[in-house]
Write a structure and sequence with these properties.
It holds the Pfam family Glyco_hydro_10. The chain is α/β, with parallel strands linked by helices. The chain is built from twelve helices and nine strands. Helix 5 runs parallel beside helix 7 (154-166) and helix 8 runs parallel beside helix 9. The structure holds ligand G3I. Ligand G3I binds at residues 21, 44-45, 48, 88, 133, 177, 208, 239, 313.
C-alpha cells in the first residue's frame, strides 16, 4: 500500500516519537497517521528518568505502560528513551540528604537500581534502549556531567552492563546529536570503541539528526554513518526533523526593540510556509533519505522526532513561540506533498 512503512519494508524501519500529552492519546487524526505510516515508536518524554523516578524509589510507570501497550497493540518496534542522560534527570539522583554530591558508589547503585527497575519492567517487550544519551560534546571531549564528574568515564560502560543484565535480549544504543561534526564523530567513535573493547556489548549508535535546511552536509553525515558502522554496530537515525527556521538565538543584552525585531526574523512563517520553502524542505528530506537508502545495509531505523508540525519541540527551541514546519505531517496531520516522493524513492531502491 501507499505508505512509508511499506515503501521502506526490508530496508529500514520508519519510526516516530510519541508525546503522550500532545499526540496519540486523544487525537484520532494523529493516531491514523501513526498507525498507517510508522512501524516503530519511541517515547519522546515519558521514559526519561525525572518522569519515571521523580523521587528516590518512587517509580511512576503510568504513561510509559500506556506507550508500550499502544506499540504492542499495533505490532510496532518499541524503543525506550532514555536511561542515562544528564538532562531531565531528577536532581535527587546526584544528591545526599544534605544536598551534597553523593559518592561514586551511591551514584552507581542508583544507576543500577534505576536501570534494572525500568528495563526489567519491560523485559522482552522493548526492541532497544537508548542507554546513554549525549555524553560527548561537539568538540569531541566528554561532557562534564554529574555522571562523569562523580563516576568517571566508566559510567557509560556500567550503564550498558546494567541494561544488559536487566534484559539480555534487548538492543542497547548510544545516542547523540550533531554527530556529523568531525571532532564529535571521533569522540563518539573513541568512547564507544572503549566500551566495546572492554567486553561490553553495544548494538547501535543513534544519530539524532536534528537537522536544518543548510546543516549538516550530506557528506559529513555519510562520513559518520561509515565511521560508526565500522565499529560493527548498527547505525540508526533516531530523532530526525528538518527545521525551516534560522538557527539564531536572541542576544538578550540587546535593546528591547532590537530583540523584538530579531524575534520576528527568527519566526518568519507564522502565517504559513511559502511554496518554495516547502519544496526546499522536500528536496532536503529526499537527499537525506537517498543517503539512508544508499546505506540501508548499515541503517536499522529512521525515526522522526514527532508526527505533526504542531507537536515538534522545534516550535520552542532555541526561542519559544515559533512556528516551525520540520516534520512530514502538518498541523492538521495532513501528509505533506513531498512524502509521496519519499515513498516512491523507498519503493525504487
Ligand atoms: O508536560 C509538561 C507540562 O505539564 C508543563 O506545564 C510544561 C511547562 O514547562 O512542561 C511540560 O513538559 C515539557 C515536556 O517537554 C513536554 O512538552 C518539558 O518542560 C520540556 O522540557 C520537555 O522538552 C522535551 C525535551 O527533550 C527535554 O526533555 C521535548 O519535548 C523533547 O522533544 C526533547 O527531546 C530531546 C531528546 O529527548 C534528546 N535529544 C534532543 C531532543 C530535543 O531536545
Amino acid at each position: 500500500s501507499n505508505t512509508l512503512k511499506d515503501a521502506y519494508n526490508g530496508k529500514f524501519y520508519i519510526g516516530t516519537a510519541l508525546n503522550l500529552n500532545q499526540i496519540w492519546e486523544r487525537n484520532e487524526k494523529a493516531k491514523e497517521v501513526i498507525e498507517t505510516h510508522f512501524n516503530s515508536i519511541v517515547a519522546e518524554n515519558c521514559m526519561k528518568s525525572e518522569n519515571l523516578q521523580p523521587r528516590e524509589g518512587e517509580f511512576n510507570f503510568t504513561d510509559a505502560d500506556k506507550f508500550v501497550e499502544y506499540g504492542e497493540k499495533h505490532g510496532m518496534h518499541i524503543i525506550g528513551h532514555t536511561l542515562i542522560w544528564h538532562s531531565q534527570a531528577p536532581t535527587w539522583f546526584f544528591k545526599d540528604a544534605n544536598g551534597n554530591d553523593v559518592s561514586r558508589e551511591v551514584l552507581i547503585e542508583r544507576m543500577r537500581k534505576h536501570i534494572h527497575t525500568v528495563v526489567g519492567r519491560y523485559k522482552g517487550r522493548i526492541r532497544g534502549w537508548d542507554v546513554v544519551n549525549e555524553a560527548i560534546l561537539d568538540n569531541g571531549e566528554w561532557r562534564k556531567s554529574k555522571f562523569y564528574q562523580i563516576v568517571g568515564e566508566d559510567f557509560i560502560k556500567l550503564a550498558f552492563q546494567f541494561a544488559h543484565e536487566a534484559d539480555p535480549n534487548t538492543e542497547l544504543y548510544y545516542n547523540d546529536y550533531s554527530t556529523a561534526i568531525p571532532a564529535k564523530r571521533e569522540g563518539i567513535y573513541k568512547m564507544v570503541k572503549q566500551v566495546i573493547d572492554s567486553g561490553v556489548k553495544v548494538h547501535g549508535i543513534g544519530m539524532q539528526e536534528h537537522n536544518g535546511l543548510d546543516h549538516p552536509s550530506i557528506e559529513e553525515t555519510e562520513n559518520s554513518i561509515l565511521r560508526f558502522s565500522s565499529l560493527g554496530v548498527k547505525v540508526m537515525v533516531t530523532e530526525m526533523e528538518i527545521s525551516v527556521l534560522p538557527n539564531g538565538r536572541p542576544n538578550m543584552g540587546a535593546e528591547i526593540s532590537d530583540r523584538v525585531a530579531y524575534r520576528k526574523e527568527l519566526n518568519p512563517y507564522v502565517d504559513g510556509l511559502p511554496d518554495e520553502k516547502m519544496k526546499e524542505l522536500g528536496a532536503r528530506y529526499k537527499e537525506f533519505f537517498s543517503l539512508y537508502l544508499k546505506h540501508q545495509d548499515k541503517i536499522d531505523r529512521v525515526t522522526l522526532w514527532g508526527v505533526g508540525d504542531g507537536d515538534s519541540w522545534k516550535n520552542g527551541f532555541p526561542v519559544p513561540g515559533r512556528t516551525d514546519y520540520p516534520l512530514l505531517f502538518d498541523r492538521e496531520y495532513k501528509v505533506k506533498p513531498f512524502v509521496q516522493d519519499l515513498i516512491e524513492l523507498g519503493r525504487k531502491k
